[in-house]
Amino acid sequence: MANFKTHLLGGVASYAASTYLFWNQGNKTTFLYIGIMSIVGSLFPDIDSDTSKTIRYFFRGLTILTLLIVSGNLYINSIDYRKSAFILISIPFLIIYFIKPVFAKLTSHRGIYHSIPMGLTVSLLILYIPFISYKFIISSSFMLGFLTHLLLDEIYSSVTISGLRIKPKKSFGTALKWFAPSLYANIILNIILLLLIIDNYKFLYDEISSFF
What mean pLDDT do residues 149-169 have? Predict the structure, then answer.
């Protein structure tokens, strides 16, 4: 299995690839988003690993983002400062001591998060982010970064070199896959993916057609 630094380098490589593919499209802000999404995509699958740096960074980022969104809404709605303070103090505790442990309990490493449908699902969800342009490019950049993670994991799992012996590791085939071990997770994820494809079919068809 590739480590954090290797996946980070994979994200940088996917950023370079996305920049090359979409060089004649977008603007400076778009290429900033491409860089962010390429890196995020390249690290994303490891949020199912309880000991990875990715899950720590993910929940720290989630905490900061939630605090920013909630504080903005509290300010706009002129909520009493004592209530606001209580809400803002509660958020980190809720995320770190409740949501994160529950998430870790419900996930297993190299499970559903290390699958192609998960990458496609998150990529399509990016299309619903408001106030950004060139969503297809940004979404594709996430997916490319995501695929680099799965490919690197498979490469690092493909052989064990011990003396003159070269053989596949037990983890070979557990990263780059369509179906995860959990039947219910597979059913739910693929239904969500199908619904997202149906909802965005025309948009995706038009964007993909423009490249050919």
Answer: 66
